[in-house]
Amino acid sequence: MLLRTLSIASILTLAWSMPGVAAQCDNEIVRVFAPTSELVSRVCTVVERAETRLESCALRQSRALVIRVSDSPNQFELMGHFGTKNNEIGLLSPNDLAAVLSSNSAYREIDMEQLFDSIVVHELAHAFFANTPCGIETCLAGHEYISFALQFWSLEEQSREAIISALPTSSVVGIEWFTDERLTESPEVFAANAWLHFSQPGFGCGFIKAIVAGDAVFPSEDE
Fold it and tell me: Is 173 in contact with 204 (CB distance < 8 Å)?
């Protein structure tokens, strides 16, 4: 689920360009391709619900965005992907998510449909944040912090707690903890700690706005 900008992007576009149903969401910016009309409707509902929350965190979408849902697990074992060059999101359908999760993944603690909805939000956050000056190459930890925090925010409290309880997290971490290295070591721990940091008093959307404005900067690899 990490943001990928390497050469696999074009391959993933092909992998997710499956025949199916296509429809424009009510916001007229997002177009969804999915195996069934029910799945198209589900994605559009999540998009509509997420837009208000993203807007409250200063994340807005002005460019046309395509979301493609596939029912075929891909060789890269990604649950979701945002391609910066073509401004497209690729997602695995709820029925296929379990196939790419490791046996000890904390995400197995929750319903796969809930997980799917949260991944839609995660990738939307990537797409919306990509519209800001903070480039993906220089702001990877920032991108993932925002996407994971908003993904966990979208979950039901019971599901969120089930995931966090299955991970070795800390409720007291500062921005210096969120490095590219820790993201690579354990994306799930990074995700849970992002939520725990984000949900502390004095952070939340105000902190995301600071990231978007460039006033909150994550550690670089050279530090």
Answer: no
